Fold each of these.
Amino acid sequence: MQLPNLKEAKVRTQKEVVTKTNDYIITHDLVELGRGRQYYVKTYGCQMNEHDTENIKAILEDMSFTEAGSMEEADLILLNTCAIRENAHNKVFGMIGRIKHMKETKPEMMVGLCGCMAQEESVVDEILEKYRWLDVVFGTHNIHQLPRILKEAMVTKKLNVDVLSIEGDIIENVPVKRDHPYKAWVNIMYGCDKFCTYCIVPYTRGKQRSRKPHFIIEEVKELINAGYKEVTLLGQNVNAYGKDLKIDYTMANLLEEVAKTGIERLRFVTSHPWDFSDDMIRVIARYDNVMPYIHLPLQSGSNRILKLMGRRYTKESYLELFHKLKQALPYSAITTDIIVGFPGETEADFQDTLEVVKACAYDSAFTFIFSPRIGTPAAKMLDDVSLEVKQKRLHELNDLVNGYSRKANEAYLGKIVPVLIEGSSENNAEMLMGYTDTMKLVNVTGSKQFIGQIVPVKITDVKTWSMTGEIVENA
Ligand code: SAH
Ligand code: SF4
Ligand code: F3S
């Protein structure tokens, strides 16, 4: 057993991060372990977790497991979890309860928990106390050791907890089974050193570690050769890319080099306003294949709250950056994240947030009620805003934000915009769906032959969260 430790997770060691190109090993005894068995991975949380699941699936297939069509059919269920808010945590424990019932009629089925919740000392304590019937718990730093961890649990038939609290090295040879044939996630960095006071990510993902540029470029080139049209560069704080490498190389340099590979669409998430450089803005403006879409989390519009959050910018400096971006990239869509009900947030603070939302008229926003996370500084602050007030603020904010989303979409009516057609629409199999360059969801009428292509689409109708359009042939 290797248990997570909150104190260790908070530490930032000086230990040099080593890039390892052969640390994922699948020895002879592991290759056949999954033969005749099916796996199912359920993913919660952000794109980082979705991409980790793509690695987990490939590792399981290296062990001869095959993917099950549903959880009910699986011999191995893994929950790849998220710890960002209380409700993510509750959903997972709800699911574990459901799986327990399934296991009663299927006792040989194996069940595991991984991802960010596995990195939490308090969660693993709870599992050891109440859920000892689980088979494996592993963290975000040792996904590449899954074959060994799983084998140990199979052999001992006991719960095997294997979670490292100090981040590991960068493992470059982990396989990946991509969910999508046309768009791909590419990690450019792991971890986060920003330590915003409300956020658990710096503890669940460890210190910031940037991948070396040439590994990223190689991966993108391979994706182009495999027919991929779109790449999203992933990191919790991508603008800080390279700061931990001992070479003079920034996110602007990386963005430019990746743009030069010729990938048709290049995106990146998430940008912290603090590290957004003018060089980056110039690169986004210069290269047509860098998509005009920027996610720029605000969190709060109150300087007092921003300071308590440890966000390192003010309302004024945020607005200055926002306007600089809009000036350089007038066609771009900008979206954001906002937290309401942070400890001590007054009505005046909340009004400041609304004011920034009005000034920015975001294309869309993800809005959240503050959720105290064990081990973070904000969890120790006096949470003196009542739930009723928090909910009222969330509603008011959502009404405002949704109005702007709709307005932003209305501006597309009658226009012809490029859409990467991904497949059939979820709600209507007769229709296709895809995203514009500005990341707007469009349900499209047109021939299935266009799936996988970027085509001109005329927008015929808009709603708050989606649009409808038709492919313009011979445009
Ligand atoms: N790295 C990204 C954010 C990742 S988490 C960034 O810095 O912008 C995604 C969003 O979840 C955050 O932007 C924040 O709005 C929200 N969030 C994070 N911790 C939270 C908490 N404790 N309570 C409520 N929302 C939270
Ligand atoms: Fe969390 Fe802040 Fe890091 Fe984003 S930048 S992951 S909000 S600590
Ligand atoms: Fe959740 Fe972990 Fe992502 S906490 S938001 S899955 S980094």
Amino acid sequence: MKHPFHLLWGGMGLLALAGCKSAQQEPAVQQPNVIYVFPDQFRNHALEFWGQDGFREHVNFRNDPVHTPRLNDFARESLVLTSAQSNCPLSSPHRGILLTGMYPNKSGVPLNCHSNRPISSLRQDAECVSDVFSKAGYDCAYFGKLHVDYPTPNDPNNPGHYVEDQVPVWDAYTPPERRHGFNYWYSYGTFDEHKNPHYWDTDGRRHDPKEWSPLHEAGRVVSYLKNEGNVRDPKKPFFIMVGMNPPHSPYRSLDDCMEEDFNLYKDQPLDSLLIRPNADPTMKKAESVRYYFASVTGVDRAFGQILDALKQLGLDKNTIVVFSSDHGETMCSQRTDDPKNSPYAESMNVPFLVRYPGKIAPRVDDLMLSSPDIMPTLLGLAGLTDSIPASVQGHDYAPLFLDVQADVVRPTGALYIQNVDGEKDADGKVRSYFPSARGFKTARYTLALYIDRQTRELKDALLFDDENDPYQLNNLPLKDHADIVRQLCAEMGKVLKEIDDPWYREGILKDMIPY
Ligand code: CA
């Protein structure tokens, strides 16, 4: 750590940090609470307000025809980013970045976690965002999907066994020693029966509530806010993370979403729902869009329940509320069945809305926020700038959030990262990862370079002019755009070196990328 951290008790912390006059003469300032809500696979385009006045003029895409009434209102009270990127747009890698502020080569989570991938698990020695909040005197609570742990046979209800029978095992129980400062727990690894979810609580007890998971989790968060059962210390500020699973797949039936939400979309022709010019409504997956949008609307309502409780309890003014996602969903765009993990806008561009009444002026900003920036920015907003661990690779944009005129260097772009399984041992366990693609997204362009597993030479490339071709319909040949490619590779090389990425360490494509 750059600065040794000293615990500042009670409400004196912010006063001391702000360099105010004698703290004893000032009324105590309560440090802000923080709630970070991030549903899974929620693309930035699936927000209704992007089609409304005050927002539509800031983006060059048409919003999906979804209903998100609560998020529309919330956006008008928030700083809303047009261009937040999920750098490694896949569940576990994103979550590893979010919690540690480190890219996947440092967080411990380069691949989606399951029991055949022992090399992908959140580093136990990492100083996570929740570790920092906890040390700063916060009560920390985690709700919902975590998906950053390598599953082990540690079922608290069935010692010596995994928590599920399928092979490989995807779901996981996170024991207290792996909870990184969260002292309240209501979570699971990953599990996709949205109306039959399960959770392990702080004491390892399992709950099977048979309720659509976002609404169930919202109810649990509200109960926590009300402090039912004295689960938190009302004198302490709180830090809450809520990892909702929908609008994640499956998108097949009313087992996946709420009927009242499905009814909004069930009779709409598919080509009136899949309106992006790069979408193909004849794909087999096309029917899924009704369930996807229904899930989006349901998540909107669940999020609204948390906002309502904050207001009723008088906590809304001193609580920073963030709404984001782990990555997007291609949903029949670009003719791919893979909803994520690609550099396409539908996969990388995520919602990012921050409300902090009286401190952050509502506005729209094109800051190209990268996933590792989230942890330091949250800590910065909470007045904990000096406690940001030196291990964090992201940047603290709190000064810019708090003051649009702040003297902050804006990023020129965001890295794109794709890893796949590397070497496997005789038991089929993955022992390394192969860094299959790297890329760079700027305001103007998206570049992605894919390499061959054996030769490590360039195998494939994508280059889009996102300004003139926002739906990424024309993949530009690299050879016809040498100057642009050179520029983008220079920017990308700088960041790959800065974060000590395997591409830099191994000199991958060093003829193209000046490290
Ligand atoms: Ca995910």
